[in-house]
Structures are given as C-alpha cells and as structure tokens.
Amino acid sequence: MPLLSVVIPAYNEQEIILKTAAAVTQVLEDAGIEHEIVFVNDGSRDGTWDAIEQAARADAHVRGIGLSRNFGKESAILAGLRESRGDCCVVIDCDLQQPPEVMVEMYRLWEQGYKVVNGVKSDRGKESAFHKLAAKAFYAAMSAIVKLDMRKASDYKLLDREVVEALLSMPERNYFFRALSEWVGYPSASVEYDVRERAYGKTKWTTWSLFRYALTNITSFSAIPLHLITALGCFVFVVAVVFGLIALVQYFKGTAVEGFTTVILLLLLIGSVIMISLGIIGYYISKIYEEIKQRPKYLVAVRTGEKEQTEKGL
Ligand code: UDP
Ligand code: MG
C-alpha cells in the first residue's frame, strides 16, 4: 500500500502540535490511508520541539526534525520533503487553518494519476483590508510573471514522489514553493477548501516580512524590473531630446535665459531615475551573490529519537 507523508512546518506552535498530529492521524486512519507525519521545527523559540518529541513518542507514525535556526517556511518545507519517505507528500500548515479532511480528497485524486494536487482557498479567511489588498497586488504580479493563476494558491499541496524529487533537485536558494511546484508542470488537479481561523497563537507574518517575501519571490521568478529600467531610460531619452530641441530653438531665437526651473527639474528627475535603476540592479546583484554562495538552504540539528542531541537541549 502506498505511503503518504504529511510534512508540517512549525514555528512557535507549541500549543497545537499535539492537536495537529491527532487531527491528521484521525482523518487518515478513518480513510484507511497509510501515512507518516514529518514535523519540521523551524528554529522555534518556545516548546515546539518538546511537543514534537512528545507527539513522536506517543505515535510511531510521527517523526520530527529540528533545524538549527529559523530558516523560514520555504526551507522548512524543503527539509520536510527531503526527510519524507512517502510515495506522495502533503504539505500542510501546523495551525489547522487548512482542514485536514481535504487531504483525503487530494489523496484520491493522486490515486487517479494526478501528480500535483493544489489546495485552493475558496476565500482568504479573516485578514485585514490592507493585508488583503497587498496579497491581491502580489498575486496579480506573480500570476502575470509565472503565467499561472496564483491568486488563491496556497502551500497546502499534495505532490507525487517524482515531483518532490524534481523540487529537491533545484539548486536555487530563493525557493518559492508555491510557484515552483506549478513551474515543474506535471498533470495537476485542485481541491477547494475554506480557510479556518487560527485556533492558537498568531500568524508568523508581519507586513514587513510579507513585503520582503513578495520582493524576493518576484525577483526570483522574473527579470521584468530590469527591463523596466531600459524602458525608463528610453522614456527619459525621448524627454531629453524634446527639451534639447526646445533649448536649441530658444538659443537661436536669443531667448535662452529663462528655464532654470526646467534644468533643476530635469536634474532631479534624471538623478532619481538613475538611483532607482541602480537600486534595482543592486538588488538583483545581491540575489546573484546569495545564489552563488551555494550555502545549504537549511541545517538539520536534531531528529526525534536521537538521544544525544536532545540531551544537549537543542
Ligand atoms: N512557519 C515556519 N517558519 C516560519 C514562519 C512560519 O515554519 O518562519 C510555519 C508556521 O508554523 C505554520 C505555517 O508556516 O505552520 C504558516 O504560518 P502562519 O500560519 O503564520 O501563516 P499564515 O497562515 O498566516 O499565512
Ligand atoms: Mg496560518
């Protein structure tokens, strides 16, 4: 019988680990699906690791790894996928905002031959108006860039082993799971689910961290901002030619004294365009720098069931 791996990234989720493990186990056992649960402790500062160990002791289906620090959700997912042994893997959040029952539906679709089953949000749940707007703008940009509709995409997905291996073999550091699992192609299906409210704790995202996330992901998928610079340069050139002609005409007519304001404005305009452009180029260079260092995307410090290390209190 095929094995389903459930990968659950967890960052400061101590209150809910045991409940999540129980809920997932319940759903999968009821459906008669053979499974394992792989928790990834993404450098939590609370008792998340203890909770994971407790869950692992209570249930042989549960395993866990702990990263050496907080590497971010994408890296945690990747670590979990590498650790998983299943013929297919489901990635699900720890907070139970994504109903585990949907997993069974995903699994059935996988049995029918789909290699990727996307969980699609039927609505975005409770979020502030600003957050909704920002998310909308980001997904509109992302959808245009990746050429796939990502507005309702989430990280709740089932992936066939083949797809998991494809994702694991990607060398890039800026890893945007949601978009890359679309990028790999393969026959895919989707399942809708309603986003629930968080039962414990609060979201791990701040507006600033989401903004950084958006910027990183857009630049890791697209060079359009770089091309925009060229377009901007062309635009400024046209403006310069027009103003140049006007200036020449004025010179020959002998009325060239005024126009100081124009000079100041042009200087300011061109100066700021150049600086913004350098900023964009600099950002890409910094990304290239990050990629070229080829550092590992995460480091595993502990595993459940390995005594020595847990005694060190990691
Ligand atoms: N998460 C993580 N590392 C991080 C931030 C979040 O592993 O640095 C996990 C978190 O524990 C949760 C999932 O990613 O299981 C989604 O986080 P959250 O619920 O805060 O995001 P939201 O649902 O608000 O988008
Ligand atoms: Mg959540």
CATH topology of the largest domain: Spore Coat Polysaccharide Biosynthesis Protein SpsA, Chain A
How many β strands by DSSP? 8
Rg, nearest Å: 25 Å
CATH class of the largest domain: Alpha Beta
Beta-strand content: 15-25%
Q: Which sequence of strands runs across the widest sheet?
A: 7-5-6-4-1-2-3-8
Rounded mean pLDDT score: 83
Ligand inventory reads:
uridine-5'-diphosphate, magnesium ion
**How many domain modules?**
2
Task: Report how far the terminal alpha carbons are from each other.
Answer: 36 Å
Question: What is the CATH architecture descriptor of the largest domain?
Answer: Alpha-Beta Complex
> How is the biggest beta sheet arranged?
8 strands, mixed
Number of helices: 11
Uncertain segments are 310-314
Helical content class: 40-55%
What's the order of the H and E elements?
EHEHEHEHEHEHHEHHHEH
CATH superfamily of the largest domain: Spore Coat Polysaccharide Biosynthesis Protein SpsA, Chain A
Which term fits the overall shape? Answer: elongated
